[in-house]
Structure formats: C-alpha cells, structure tokens
Design a protein that fits this description.
- The complex is a heterodimer.
- Chain A has a 6-stranded parallel beta sheet with strand order 7-6-5-8-9-10. In chain A, strands 2-3-1-4 form a 4-stranded antiparallel beta sheet, sandwiched between helices.
- Chain A is of the alpha/beta class.
- Chain A is 54% helix and 12% strand.
- In chain A, helix 6 (134-153) packs across helix 13 (316-361), helix 7 (163-174) packs across helix 12 and helix 13 (316-361) packs antiparallel against helix 14 (367-398).
- In chain B, helix 3 (68-90) runs antiparallel to helix 4 (96-113), helix 5 crosses helix 9 and helix 8 runs antiparallel to helix 9.
- Chain B is 79% helix and 0% strand.
- The two termini of chain B are 24 Å apart.
- By secondary structure, chain B is mostly helical.
- The longest helix of chain B has 35 residues, at 127-161.
- Classes of the chains: A alpha/beta, B mainly alpha.
- The interface between A and B is medium-sized, with 20 and 18 residues.
Amino acid sequence: MNLVGISINHKTSPLDLREALHLNHDEIVTLIPRLKNSLFSEGVVISTCNRTEIFGFPQNQELDLSSIIDELIRFKPVNEIKQEHFLKFFSCGAVRHLFSVASGIDSMIIGDSQILGQVKEAFEISEDLDFAGAALRRIFDTAIKTGKRAIKETTISEGAVTVSYAAVQVVEKIFSSLDKKSALVIGAGETGELAAVHLRDKGIGKIAIANRTIERAEKLAKKIHGEIVPFQFYKEHLHNFDIVISATSSNNIIVSYDDIKSAVKKRKNTPLILMDIAVPRDIDPDVKKIDNVFYHDMDSLKIIVDQNLQKRKDQIPLVQKIIMEEMIGFFGWFNTLDVVPTIKTMRLFFEEIRNDELEKIKNKVSDEDFIKIEDMTRRMIGRILHNPTVKLREFAETGANIKEVAANTMILKDLFNLGSIPSNGKGINEDKNNPEGTNEKK
Amino acid sequence: MLQPIDILNLFLPILYASVFAAYIYDFFTEKKFVNNSKRIILFVTLILHALYLISRTIEFDHPPITSKFEIFSIIAFSIGFSYFILELLTDIRGTGAFIILFSLGFQIVSSLFIEHNYTVPEVLRNRLLGLHVVNALLGYSGITISAVYGLLFILLYKNLKANKFGLVFNRLPSLEILEKLSFYSAVIGFILLTIAIIIGTIWLPSAFPNFSYLDPKLIGTFFVWIVYGIGILRKLFGNLYGKKVIFFSLTGFAIAIISLIITSTLGKTFHSFY
C-alpha cells in the first residue's frame, strides 16, 4: 500500500494560515490536473475551513512528501507557511488518518458530522476529473462507512456543542414539541441567526425577529420564514411568545424584571423560556425568580456544551475501535489484490493442461465417454486447486504479514513456473492499485 | 396448588427487584440492550403476578382482597400494570424505576406477611365488592403514578431553575410530558375511583345496613375525590399549568395517604374487614 497524504489542520497551524490555504471547489478542480501531471496517478484533495489535505498514490515510488507540500504552496502561495505546519502520512498511517478525519475524531469540534459530507464531496470531485481509481474508491468508501458507523454506533455526534444549540436543547426539556410554540429572537447577529435556524430546524410553530437594523431583521426573517417585530415595540410583544432568545450587542439590560413579570401575568402564568446568549447580558437575571420563567444565560448554557464535549471525547476509544475494524477489513481486501492474479494464473495453468490432455484423447473415445472424462477432470482440477486457493486467500485476508503473503505467492509461482505462463494480459501483471483496470498504467 | 403459590410468592419480590434493577441501570447508563429488555422483564413479571393472583383466587375460593397483604400484592400488580400500559402508549421509558419501586415495596411486604386464608367473612365473597376493590386499587395506582410523575416534574423544574444539567436533566422527558403523564394518570385514577365509589354506594346498604356516611374512610375518600375533581376540572376548563397541576396531584395523593393511615390505625371504620 503506497498511499501517501499531507495535512494542515487546526492542530498544526493557526487559523489565519488555514484560512489562507483553504481551497474552494474551483481551486481544487484547477489543482488536481497539476497533481496528476507531476505527482500522483490518483488522489483526492480535501479542503474545509479547518483543514486542507491531499491523499494519493504517487507515480514515483520514491516520492518525497515535501514535494506535495511544495506543489500546494506553489499553487496557493501563503506567507509564513512552513513544512512544519504539515503532517505527513504514509501507507497504513495515511489510511488511519483519513478514517479518523471522516469519523470526526480529528475535527476541532469532536464528532463534527459535516466533515463526512466534505470527504465524500472531495472524492466525487476527483472521480469526476478521472483522478480516482478502484483502490482509492475503496479507501474512500470505507472512510465514509467508518464515519457513518461512528455516528450510528456511538454518541460521538450527539449533544449540543454550541451555545445556540444548547439553548434549543434546554427548550426541548421544557416543551415536548415546538410545532405549537412561538419564539422571538432579539438580535439578528451571527449568534441570533444560529439560534433562529436551530429553532426553525426543530420545527418551531412561529418565529419572529426583532433587530435594531430592520434590513438585517428582514434578511434573517426571510431566511427562516419568520416574522418581524419592530425593535422599538418588542417589549409589548413579549407575552405573545413562549421562547425569547436575546443575542444583541447592547451594553445594557434590554429586558427588565418588570417586563417579564408583566409578560408572565399576561400569559396567565404559562411557561416562558428566556435564553440570554448575549455578552454582556441582555436580560435581567433576577427574572429567574419568577415562577414558570426559565432563564438561562451563556454561563449556564456553557455547562451543557462542556458536558457534551466531554461525552464526545469519552466516545473516541469506541470510534477508534471502529476505525481499527474497518482498517482490518480494508487491508484484508487490499492484500487479496496480491494473490488474485496468482490464483487466476494458477487456475489458467491447470486448465490449459487439462484442455491439452483432453484434446489428445478427443478422437480416441466415444462422445459419451469424452463428456464423462471432461466432467471428471474438471472436478479433479477443482478439488486439487481448492485448498491452495483457499489458503492463499486466507493468508491475504488475515493481512498480518504482507511479506509472508508475498513469499507464499512466490513459492507457488516458482513451483509451477507461473511467471512464464501467458495469461492473455490478465493475472500476474495486474496493477494492485487498479484491480479493475480502469486507470491508465502507472 | 399451594406449592406453586408459595414459589411465586417467594419469586415475585425477586422479579420486581430485577425489573427495578433493569430500569434503574438503564436510567443511569442508557444501554441499548437494557433499554429493550427491561420491558420484557416487566411483562414476564406481570404475567407471573397475574397467574399468582388467579391461583390464589382458585385455591382459596375468594378474590385476594381479604387481608392487607393480599391487597398489597394487588396494589403492586396494578401499579406495575398501569405503568406498563402507560409505557406502551407513550413509549417514554426513562421513568419506570421510580414507579416500579412502589410495586417492589408493596410486593416485598405482601410476600413477607401474607397468609393462606381459607375462611373469610361471607361479605368478602361478594362480586360487587370484588369490582369495587379492583376499581379502587387501580384508581389508587393511577393517582400514585400521577404523584410520582408530579415529583419528577418538581425535580426537573428545580434542576432547570438552578441550571443543573446532570442525570435528571439528561434522562427525564420534558416538563410538558411529565405534566401530561401526571395529569392523564390522575384522570384515569379519578375515573376508576369514581366507579369504585358508585359501586360501593350501591353495594354498601345491602351489605352493611348500619353503616354511616360519616365513616372516616368514606369522608377521606370523598376528600381525595373532590381534590382530584377540582384539579381536573380546573385543568380542563380553566388556566391551570405546570406546577399548579402538579400541586393538585400531590395534594390529592397526600390526602389519600393520610386518610389511609388514619382509617387503618386511629379511626373506627366499617371498612376494616380483616
């Protein structure tokens, strides 16, 4: 396995460097032909806001991994970037790293499931540009399978890990369903927008935006199919909402104790949830003393986020176990690629002997006897070759010792002189990285 | 048939303990395997418990309502059974430990002290009495479950107010669901209690010509019925939400317990048959 890879990510470099090196779709499409020309027979470029990675099978077995980094920097020059900002992977390490990335345990926010889609998309680009063969397809299929298993079999992606989402998680602990509830988001900045989007995704019945700049409120309201409450009147509307999320940049309290007391009275004491995700706070924290008012601020929501992050971290060993299982499966398959041509040639060799001998007696026996002899020899060859075939596959699939597999294959070839058997262009000369012969010869 | 009855009597507390263990383990760990198997364990326990009660009825020729400890066993069964139905209907599985604990407690006391009772007063063989008792016990199970959900509501409410996001926050369903579960259990309990009261009222004059409507047991039951009735009506037609609904449930339950203690220890009531 001669897969190689390089990676610059949140563990190796600061944000500004990662941002500067980020490649958009068009840039990846432009870079791939350059990699194809000079470095790789096939490969994939993954680039997200937190990582840029290149994986591939080198054209030259002696490829220096630094040359991949040099090529990337030549393509997208970034000041102050150094070789030290990159991780280099080879063979098994490259596969393990890719599987770790796909399963989210290498992400900045552990368990981030978006990366799985990004890995998939990166491979599709390579496939579209005819830069991905069967072995690379198998690696990426297994990587995506690993990511899916991690999500399904562990809780690596569960629980809110952003304050906005934690706010929604608390809301769900108070109301059983949100489809008949209404929410007011005060402040249409990034945090407010995120909270509004989460609420919409959770199926909130009605949502309204109040923002000082009306244009911004309109823009967000349009995005989430919400209504607008004029900022100067939002206090008069508080009682109409079950959930109020405040995320403005105001330096002072904008929702007082009395505002909430009055709203709760108008609501006839039905529960009111207040999420203050602004710093400094927008809502007077004393409102938590009012019955049926659930007030949470950044500090309290941060507790949930930290707990969930810790829970995700605790899942890493389970994900690593899945990665190991998938690696064993993958290398089992990969190692069989070594023996498949040998098995094919061996079978062909015996089949040719059988055909020769059958040809010799064809005119010496009756048609009826010939059919019997033909059938008998077929079964005989089948039985003779059954054990060697199974054993060779077993050696390969266990994948414990690649050298042992090679040695056994070699003995077999020497014993029967298989190397000299013409195999119609198939068999022993097949390319392991391209078992289906779909790519040009390297 | 005595031997199987004795064996079941011995095993029922163990079975309820296993159910409780499965539910509490699942509450703390949320393991998929336990989550699916705990319901099966509860189902098997309830089947065996039903068999036990039927066997007693056949063997002793009267329904198992002739002593406190027979009734305790029926209470254990009806609480477990009511919860089982509730779990099936709502698929909310995280609260079972708190309910099954009651079944376990009642069954342990019952199994420890229950006796073989072949001779009972003739009045206890009456069919109407049987119906009255079954409805009353199922009704009390309903209000017990309602009270447990009420307590869980208060627990989660306080946790949310105090920004505590631990086990209670993670495992319990939402406040709104707990309120609904408490309310629906109370409604079912109230309906069954009403049926029990009606049957009792029809049957009483014929069985006890000298009974008094001022009997402490009747007064206690009436108060319980009134509290739940007011609570349910206010919830249905008024503006009763959250903690106030729970308040009615817990008050009704407290009155029921106090009434039970007073009538079985201090007051003289015709309702003591044993």
